[in-house]
Amino acid sequence: MGNIFKNLFNKKKTEIFFERDMTPDKSKKLYKDVDENIKVFKEYLSDCDDLITREFLVGNPQTPKHRMVIFGIDGLIDKQLVQEEIMKSLMLYARQLPLEHSVGDRFFQLIKEGLLTVVEVKESDNFGEMLLAVLSGDTALFIDKMDRGLILNTRGWERRGVQEPSSEAMVRGPRDGFTETYRVNVALVRRRIKDPNLKVQTIRLGRHTRTDVGVLYIKGIANPSIVEEVLKRLNTIDIDGVLESGYIEQLIVDNWLSLFPQFRRTERPDVVAACLLEGNVVIMCDNTPFALIVPITFYSLFQSAEDYYELWYIASLLRLLRFVAAVLAISAPAFYVAMISYHPGMLPTALALSIAATREGVPFSSTVEALIMMLALEVLREAGVRLPGPIGQTIGIVGGLVVGEAAVRAGIVSPIMVIIIAINAISSFAVPNYSLAISFRLLAFVFLFLASIAGLYGILLGYLGLIAHLVTLKSFGVNYLSPIVWFDIKKMKDMVIRAPLHFMKERPEYTHPVDRQRQPDRGIRREGSGEENAEK
Amino acid sequence: MKLKKFILICLSALSIFCLTGCWDMLDIDNRFFVGNIGLDKAEEGDKIEVTFTFPLVRKIAGGEGGSQGSGSSNIARVSTVADSLHQAIHHIAIRVSRQLFFEHTRVILLGEDLAREGFDWLINFISRNPDINRRGRILVVEGKAKDALAIKNDFETLLALYITDIFQNWTISSRFVEISIDDFMNQMYTTDGDALLPRLSVGKTDVSIGGAAVIKDYKLVGWLSEEETLGINFVMGKVRGGDLTFDEPGQHIPISFGIGKARSRIELLEAGPYPKFKIIEKVELNLTETPLEMKVDSNEKLKSLQKRVEEEVNSIILRAVNKLQKEYGVDLVGFGEYLYRHKPEIWKNYKDNWDDIFPNAEVVVETEVTIRSIGVSM
User: Fold this and answer.
1) For position A6, what pLDDT does the model report?
2) Looking at the structure, do residues B204 and B68 belong to the same domain, yes or no?
3) Which of A37, A456, B233, B369 is most buried, judged by most C-beta within 10 A?
4) Contacts of residue B104 in chain A, CB cutoff 8 Å?
5) Given A350, A359, A455, which is nearest B27 (Cβ)?
6) What distance in Å separates the CA atoms of residue B230 and residue B233, rounded to the nearest whole number?
């Protein structure tokens, strides 16, 4: 697949300073003459009106002055920082130094080590690096008579604060969610795992976007071969831009034909931390609040962070409910249609009659009726997402209540069908993973089709096909239905039943962690730990 | 390559739907749920008169269309005269607007005249037809089945549910035969045509189920009264409740008991040319009603009362069994089956002419009555 993109890009070759592996082209070296440098640099960024250039003189007014110039992108640099820590230092405080005696390398070292008070300073001798730095929000400093420049970290743009993740809100648990800034996101994870073994490997993807993409894992837990595989696959990506982690997901997915998400995406740093501790590898991408977790199993998509914060009874019950909801989300309309059009004999007599009574006068067959309602619901859902908050609610009320009620009154649909479709929709939203829920909604149409041509037999065939597909599916080499395929009850402590935490002494097997032990094997810490603390 | 395989799989999966013959999609509102089948002897010739009733769901819903006060019934009744039940279905199918659907058939009513002529063809029909609901009931009507299906009352919206729900009161009555179509079919096959069926009597606005129809060789041969049915149920161990009431000499109102538990056992006492059976019955009773003057306040009085009830139960059972023996000559109390199961070597001698031996078998009944709860005595 990489070749296709490569060929595509070779055809219309823009002037690009970066190689396929996204490292800057280092061949174009800086000149000694600052004017030459300015000229070249400005040429690169010609017609870029957001470029800020500031030339100034450094040194005692009496002595020969050193010419310097800084470049930055308006909006990306923190102007306050540039003023206070770079320009003030160089233009004001530098006068107190006997600069006239230092020339050449000594002067350069003095500036770098003694004057600039920004946190991160990097030397560079080529245009490629400097250019990329400036475009990333850093400030480039060129000094006259020097073939080296300095890259100063002055990144500071308008960013959204850390907010509660809207797609994964929960009652119990931390309220912070990822933002669009990569470094902030990594920091949110780091704050939870203060371990030098938490590794963050950043690469840049996208020929034009040069997006930071990080691979996070805990050394000593995560299986090195999985980390290697993730990095290998990321490096195959050659695309003009990576705007969201969804791009990465789709480009490195195992089976692109599958309806099922093979990555778990989350907005919650606590989920990322928990997965890292279980031996997963996390891919984070700049400009998106969604982190990707690999490898995953089908069951991990039914997990929610809250499961581990609440008592295990409640968590297990909720898990069970989610699985039931999943079945309903896939096959509730299909099952209803199958029952009333193929197997009404299986219904209790009273129920069969009341369903028949509600369908009396409905002009459509039950399949068409279900299809109309499901499509209407999808339209409503889509409309609700697009519209701003308050109007979205109105759409919900108008669409759900008014139109539904009116449709029933008008005799276009039967009330029981409205109930079934409502159950189907609500069930799909009870599945914690949105991508999975959307897949289920799509599958509901497939199952409806199967049920309408073959009744329960069709639904059964559908499930057989579904299971056959799931069994063959792999996420980074891990079987999608992992813990259940071999059916070992000991490995299913975190599936439908969320076992009490002190039973989950080992990390899940599907990640093949290097270190399987999660809790020391010395029984439940209850009275024992209390006494120890008391002694201390 | 992969796509080719995928398309191939899709095509072969689709072909399944073309190859199967069971394309029976029909929406629920396009079916008539036949609730009752009534079978009578037709006026002319050998034909039968078949009556189907099915609810008109539009009227049950009570919405638009069906005004309840209009007097038209919620239930449609269609009759036809045909050579067979199967033919009747086809006769009626061309007269009604929707497909007849038999999986919800709850009640099959047999008219008395037809039942007396024999109905082995019905057994055949039911066993060959997978549509008929085996959990339904089959009853013999005292009179015409058609009349029973014309009953109108407001107990239930459906006549079929009304009739089948009466069977749920089995634990209060124990005076009729509780048998489903499935059980009946099994019995007909094992006994080759001998069974007891519940009897349905038609009133003005209601029906009642009580007593039993005695079926011998697929024919109705006679009836058992409610009390006799109770006696047979005692022997068969099928009594789950009900009441016993009898007059006490010298008292102006009878004494009533509620039946709690009843267990029975059959024993073979002698195996001469005619066997002698002993029926051991253990009954637990609750005292529910006595005359005010009568006080049960001592063990002796309780004992004498128990003795009195024992005699009464003995005679109820004996009368019922004797009726089956002498009048109908059909073994529906399970003596033959008892021998077959427990005394196979004795059964060997009897089995060839059991029909002659059974009426002459000697029967003794021994009842042990316990009155467990006498209520509050003043």
Assistant:
1) 56
2) yes
3) B233
4) 344-345, 349, 352
5) A359
6) 5
